[in-house]
Give the backbone structure.
Amino acid sequence: MARPEPSTRERIVSAASKLFYSDGIKGVSVDAVAEKAGLTKRTLYYHFRSKDDLVAAYLEARDQPNLALFRRWFDEAEGELPVKVEAIFSNLARAARHPKWKGCGFLRTSAELANLPGHPAIRIGAAHKKKFENWLRTTFEAAGIGNSLQLARQILLLLDGSFAVVLLHRDASYMETAGEAAATLVTSALAASRPVASRQNRRR
Amino acid sequence: MARPEPSTRERIVSAASKLFYSDGIKGVSVDAVAEKAGLTKRTLYYHFRSKDDLVAAYLEARDQPNLALFRRWFDEAEGELPVKVEAIFSNLARAARHPKWKGCGFLRTSAELANLPGHPAIRIGAAHKKKFENWLRTTFEAAGIGNSLQLARQILLLLDGSFAVVLLHRDASYMETAGEAAATLVTSALAASRPVASRQNRRR
DNA sequence: TTGCGTCTATTCACTGGTCGGTATACATCG
DNA sequence: CGATGTATACCGACCAGTGAATAGACGCAA
């Protein structure tokens, strides 16, 4: 299917995404983004009020595609709930082995802009992670897990932890370790919510 | 006990630590560090070859004190192993509620310098996390836990995940959630390593 | 159809300021 | 004297953001 001609604004955001993700926010000049997009800085400033706006657009553009990818990895995995959760981590480990992989753009941006708590980009990143947490929570709830929010947050902590650790050590195997921990926690929560006959505190 | 007069170099590192931790590496100029230390930039460059060296010194200075603090929180907690591990997280949650808290300096630096994989500061950060992992592993091993390395890494993933998540959401309660997950994993590992009489797959 | 005004999108050239790093000289002290 | 440490003043590069002009598309009236 032929994709439509990308608008100028889309070309700018695409160039900004590649550069910001690769080199960080402060490490990329507006001139560099303009050059990568094939236009002048003045044109860029016609479409975006400031560099901060451009940073926000960069993360905004990554929000939905990222969530869809995680959901797809979960849906396409075959097996019980712990296996499907673990599949997210093993797919991520595969991605993390690519040389251009540099962690989670949302987390890296929030780390870089930590002294600007109200920055639009940070709000977008926080909202993104909340959406993922909510999707996990509703998924767990549908599976009959009792404290679905707590479990969702624990999985999220493992996921974001593996972003940070794998980026630091450049060792993607940590992501699989995180996946095993996640599977353990899901299994444990399932056992607590659906007690089997051999346990004494059976409901009803 | 009266502490000795700090050397010029120590004053520089102390000023650099506060500024780098607060505003990030690229967000702090060498001039700003010199001014905070009460001397000129030229003097700073007499003691440090480059800004990169100064960044490395900043993290180097945080290595041992940080590890000692975690060990102290663990040692001073009363209770079984899961409780002592969880204590690290709850103490960290208390620290994270301070308005000047901005996550883990090692992780934030590695996120900011992600496009410079061989940077000295990143190597120091990676070594720091490895030391913490090793301390956890030997502790678990002494407690008779089978796969002590895997468990140590899972705890580390939760810890670093909580640094990232709490920084993004500015909600320290995630750190307590991580502590509960850590306690669950430790309990689960203990149960697998020291099977009780009621379990069938008892060793020997 | 032709000519004119208007709006959108783009470019060139520029500003004031900041950055990491340095050449050089001065001071203090053994 | 000579080594160590400090200061003044400076460099070239880069940075985010802007002023002014222009090219082209469109509508509209003569």
Notes: Residues 8, 39-40, 42-43, 46-47 of chain B lie near DNA strand D (CB under 10 Å from a C1'). Chain B touches chain A through 47 residues (CB under 8 Å). Chain B has nine helices and no strands.
